[in-house]
Design a protein that fits this description.
The protein is α+β, with helices and mostly antiparallel strands and 1015 residues long. The chain has 6 domains: 2-33 and 324-487 and 497-546 and 834-1014, Up-down Bundle (Multidrug efflux transporter AcrB transmembrane fold), CATH 1.20.1640.10; 39-129, Multidrug efflux transporter AcrB pore domain (Alpha-Beta Plaits, 2-Layer Sandwich), CATH 3.30.70.1430; 181-264, Multidrug efflux transporter AcrB TolC docking domain, DN and DC subdomains, CATH 3.30.2090; 553-646, 2-Layer Sandwich (Alpha-Beta Plaits); 658-695 and 794-827, Alpha-Beta Plaits (2-Layer Sandwich); 698-786, 2-Layer Sandwich (Multidrug efflux transporter AcrB TolC docking domain, DN and DC subdomains), CATH 3.30.2090. The chain is 54% helix and 18% strand. The strands form 7 sheets. Strands 1, 2, 3, 4, 20, 21, 28, 29 and 30 form a 9-stranded antiparallel β-sheet that branches. Strand 23 and strand 24 form a beta hairpin. The longest helix is centred in the C-terminal third of the chain and has 43 residues, at 972-1014. The protein is elongated. The two termini are 40 Å apart. The chain crosses the membrane at residues 331-350, 357-377, 383-404, 436-458, 464-486, 522-541, 841-860, 867-887, 893-912, 952-974, 980-1006. Keywords: Membrane, Transmembrane, Transmembrane helix. InterPro entries: AcrB_DN_DC_subdom, Acrflvin-R. GO terms for molecular function: xenobiotic transmembrane transporter activity.
């Protein structure tokens, strides 16, 4: 096949040129994003139930929803959390579940359940979580002084949102901070009483004046007209002109007995940009869109907004494309400098300039053609797939060096140029194919890891597989073709293919080889003894999901744990910003209830999230520490959490579940244990380090108790009392004015007095016409009650998080504590998930090693020789772990990827060396039939070491130098890749020595019995 292709250089060149053209076209069409479009198997059901307690929401809404959804296909876990006025049910599905079908099934079950839910409850909202739901940018919309906020809300909702949605590639535009304008009606009770009128007369007049006659038409000759009442109102002035009917047929204009005007509606949340109130527009991209190109369109649109709407200030914050640009920029820098270093090594090792140039031409060709595979596999250009390409480059250089070195060696043996190219490729073809398959055998099974890690490995595995298979085609076809072209008119100059520097290295290698082989048993024993020592280092390494990334922005999550209103919440947040003013570059805050469609956490008036972007990381550390001290001093009851601002990676790997949580359920009543009973029991917990879970957190509430006997005595119906309470303390909407898509509520304005004054100054009328103050029928008390009610598949639970070291050792004591109190106790948390992931990883690596053995056994036609390759793996892993320990790096997703890549390169070197030894033994046995098996083996081992020394050293050094710039770089891309680089450098450093000395020693040890039998 190689002979056939090399005999047709023009045809092969044209094919490669065509592939390059198609690859460039494919590259221009590939989507560019920060992360792969991963379908996170989570669905959240949100419930908004105004004026409802956590107990009412749990009992009347969340429990029926859980019971309805428990039969969903692929459902792994279900958690619900009921708070004041809001509740959530979080559904966790198994990876591989079709989330499109799951989303449809959840909505169908919610629709069937709607009739059995409370009538006043709006339909629960179903939110499907996806990596594309992470906003790629926030657009701040801040009204200038004197600008009507309601008009800016309409502008954002009806104009700005629509214009951004029209951009190709936008999937969703979400808004928070909207405020509506309402018409408020405030009756003058003294005037009403003087005229013998009531508030209800005013409400009836408004309702009657805003009536319509839908669907009624009248006939006039041959024409038909729809009928419309002329009394319909549109403005406060129209409402003031409405007649209010009183006793004896009296009618007065409504404006005489009530104050009617436009006001800003009562809001449950605010958005702040700095200390200014405004709106925020979050922009989400489609999976197939190119983030960089889309961001340019969004920036251009914001530029037009600034010109078109000068009454509003615009700013862009939390731009996620900067993360993508940083990642790509770092990879480009690493490839550039790494390529320069690698070529420097090639020039040092080679005796001429032609070989490095050939490799230099093959690398970009392989990279570009790999994008054609991306297009076929549906893989986007993202940080994960690009890192896979960067890793594959090391192996690509490996294949190129091996092929060119073998062709050169054939020329040294005296073969003509054409035959040297053909035989040089054919001789290593099976070994290279085998090495690629073994690399994939180590790498591809990791795709079957559960969770996000497995989903991320998919893109990396495809990108590595793409560049490896393309590198094989390039190595078998393009490289020999280029070698033939470059050396066609150059006479052979003997050993000039090796540089003087490399000849000195060969001399050092021979001296080391002779010393090792002179003490074979001791050398082999020493290498085997190093394996457990190296692997023990891994037990002291800290483990985490992602490596720590240097950031200069932070997020402050505050729960004031006080029954404050949203305005007080806003004022406190403004005070925090004022205290830090001048120390941060940007700040924004979401205060109270969020209006985002995709917000999947609990909404509370007493909560706030503050985003702060500082000048640099040291400033952030200093100021966040000061901020924590200030919050602890000024607001001791508040729960404060300061953390790094989450980027797309953090949000993908973030988990709300505690590290180690103990849950218990009350077996008899199946209700939360009352706080008065629970508090002394918690003091008896047999562990010291713990904190309350959500189901144990408390808050104060005002409790109204209705005196039913007194109501009956005075002849007042309880429904009348409840209706009056709702009107006085709730958001009582009289009616709505509808103009096309715009709806303006008409609301009864409540009193701003405290609730006790309201109860004393408002009256109900008894059967005898006498009026009684409301406080005659209501007893008021303050009580503490649980802030949340938490539940899972089997019902309501309460929990504590264990924060000490080795909490699993306390399980038996905690189970005894629960048994004594008739509790069903269980344990859950991230600790168990991590342990399950490690167990899966061990199983998958076992499968990988088994596949590796099968492939090598087929390659070498031996059941014993594959063990040599497998024995090299622990040494490489040990070297990588040692490097991670020396550099203070944790064992995380990226360092694990580095381990896999490093093992792939190590395996290649070992396979090719064993393959060379096997071929040399066969050749020497045929050339010297009288020689002993021991002599032939020793000679083959020594010669194979000489032949493979250059490819092994060049592969290791070029790979290490190609990755080395990442160690000294900064930014997101470098922070992510650095643990990977340390793994590869540590593993290859030990792995190179392993390939040079351990492989011949292990080969000798496993071949001794066979040699002695032959003799």
């Amino acid at each position: 096949m190689v002979r056939f292709l090399l005999a047709r250089p023009i045809a092969v060149t044209m094919v490669f040129m065509a592939l390059m053209v198609f690859s460039v076209i494919a590259f221009t069409k590939l989507p560019v994003s920060l992360l792969p479009p991963i379908d996170v198997p989570q669905i959240v059901v949100k419930v908004n139930y105004p004026n409802a307690s956590p107990e009412a929401i749990e009992q009347n809404v969340l429990r029926p929803v859980r019971e309805s959804l428990i039969t969903l296909n692929g459902l792994e876990d279900m958690q619900s959390k009921a708070g004041s006025e809001t509740g959530t049910v979080r559904l966790q599905f198994a990876y591989g579940t079709s989330m499109e079908l799951a989303y449809i099934e959840v909505n169908e079950k919610i629709d069937r359940l709607t009739n059995s839910l409370p009538e006043e409850l709006s339909r629960p909202q179903v939110i499907r979580i996806n990596t594309n739901d992470i906003p790629m940018v926030h657009i701040q919309v801040v009204p200038k002084e004197g600008t009507d906020y309601a008009e800016v809300t309409k502008l954002a909702e009806n104009v700005l949102k629509k214009r951004i949605e029209q951009l190709e590639g936008i999937s969703l535009v979400d808004i928070n901070g909207k405020q509506e304008r309402v018409i408020t009606v405030r009756p003058d009770k003294a005037v009403l009483a003087g005229l013998g009128l009531s508030e209800q007369d005013v409400l009836n007049a408004i309702t009657a004046g805003n009536r319509e006659l839908p669907g009624i038409s009248v006939k006039d000759g041959q024409y038909r007209y729809f009928l419309r009442l002329a009394t319909r109102v549109d403005t406060p002035e129209d409402i003031e002109d409405l007649p209010v009917s009183g006793p004896g047929g009296m009618a007065v204009p409504l404006g005489k007995v009530a104050d009617v005007q436009y006001r800003m509606g009562e809001t449950m949340g605010y958005h702040l940009y700095g200390k200014q109130e405004g709106l925020v527009i979050t922009v989400h991209k489609q999976a197939a869109a190119k983030m960089n190109e889309l961001m340019e369109k969004v920036r251009a649109s914001v530029g037009h907004f600034k010109q078109d709407y000068p009454q509003v200030d615009f700013a862009m914050t939390q731009d996620q494309s900067t993360l993508l640009n940083a990642g790509i920029s770092n990879l480009q820098t690493s490839l550039l400098f790494g390529g320069i270093f690698a070529f420097g090594v090639l020039f040092i090792f080679m005796g001429n300039y032609r070989m490095p140039v050939i490799i230099g031409l093959s690398l970009p060709a392989s990279l570009v053609i790999s994008f054609l595979v991306f297009q076929a596999a549906g893989i986007s250009i993202n940080v994960i797939s690009l890192s896979g390409l960067a890793l594959g480059l090391g192996m690509l250089i490996d294949n190129a060096i091996i092929v060119l070195d073998n062709i050169t060696r054939k020329r040294q043996e005296g073969l003509p140029l054409f035959e040297a190219c053909v035989q040089g490729v054919n001789e290593v073809m099976s070994a290279l194919i085998s090495s690629v398959l073994t690399t994939l055998a180590v790498f591809v099974p990791l795709v079957f890891l559960s969770g996000i890690s497995g989903a991320l490995f998919l893109d990396q595995a495809v990108s590595v597989a793409a560049i490896l298979f393309v590198s094989l085609v390039v190595a078998f076809v393009l490289l020999p073709l280029l070698y033939r072209v470059f050396f066609a008119r150059k006479a052979w100059e003997g050993n000039r293919e090796d540089s003087p520097f490399f000849r000195k290295i060969i001399k050092l290698y021979k001296e080391g080889y002779q010393m090792v082989m002179a003490n074979r048993k001791w050398s082999l024993a020493l290498l085997f003894a190093l394996i457990p020592v190296f692997l023990l280092v891994g037990t002291v390494l800290p483990t985490e999901g992602l490596p720590p990334i240097a950031k200069k922005d932070a997020v402050l999550e505050v729960d004031w744990n006080e029954p404050i209103g949203v305005k007080e919440n806003r004022d406190r947040v403004k005070g925090i910003m004022a205290n830090l003013e001048g120390d941060f570059e940007q700040a924004e805050a979401d205060v109270g209830v969020r209006q985002f469609l995709l917000f999947d956490r609990e909404n509370s008036v007493q909560q706030a999230t503050v985003y702060l972007d500082f000048k640099d990381e040291p400033s952030k550390e200093q100021l966040t520490a000061r901020l924590e001290r200030m919050m602890e001093r000024d607001f001791p009851r508040a729960t404060v959490e300061v953390s790094d601002a989450p980027n797309a990676f953090d949000q993908l790997f973030a988990s709300d579940i505690p590290h180690y949580e103990m849950r218990w359920k009350e077996l008899e009543s199946k209700r939360p244990v009352p706080a008065a009973e629970m508090t002394p029991w918690l003091e008896e917990l047999p562990v010291a380090n713990w904190k309350k879970g959500p189901g144990l957190q408390e808050e104060s509430a005002v409790l109204f108790r209705i005196d039913l006997e007194r109501l009956a005595l005075y002849g007042i119906d309880i429904d009348v009392l409840i209706a009056e309470i709702e009107r006085l303390f709730g958001r009582y909407t009289i009616d709505e004015i509808k103009r096309f898509s715009e709806v303006t509520p008409i609301r009864l304005e409540g009193s701003t007095s405290d609730f006790r004054t309201i109860l004393r100054s408002n009256y109900l009328e008894g059967t005898e016409g006498q009026r009684y103050a409301l406080d005659n029928f209501i007893r008021v008390s303050y009580e503490d009650h649980y802030k949340y009610v938490t539940a899972d598949k089997t019902g309501i639970y309460q929990s504590v998080s264990l924060t000490g070291a080795h909490p699993e050792q306390q399980e038996s004591k905690l189970r005894d504590w629960g048994r004594e109190r008739n509790f069903s106790v269980s344990f859950t948390g991230q600790y168990f998930r991590d342990r399950e992931n490690i167990r899966q990883l061990m199983g998958i690596l076992g499968v990988s090693v088994l596949l590796l053995y099968f492939i090598l056994a087929a390659q070498f036609e031996s059941f014993v020789q594959p063990l040599i390759v497998i024995f090299t793996l622990p040494l490489g892993i040990g070297g990588a772990l040692l490097m991670l320990w020396l550099t203070g790096t944790s064992l995380n997703v990226m360092s694990a990827i580095g381990l896999v890549v490093m093992l792939g390169i190590m395996v290649n070197d070992a396979i090719l060396k064993i393959d060379t030894v096997n071929r040399l033994r066969e050749r020497y046995a045929s050339e010297h039939p009288g020689g002993t098996s021991r002599e032939i083996l020793d000679r083959a081992l020594f010669r194979a070491g000489e032949i493979r020394l250059k490819p092994i050293l060049m592969t290791s050094i070029t790979t290490i130098l190609a990755l080395l710039p990442v160690v000294f770089s900064s930014g997101l891309g470098a922070d992510l890749q650095r643990p990977l680089v340390f793994s590869v450098i540590g593993g290859l450093t030990i792995g190179t020595l392993t390939a040079l000395y351990f492989v011949p020693l292990a080969y000798w040890a496993l071949s001794r019995e066979k040699v002695s039998r032959l003799e």
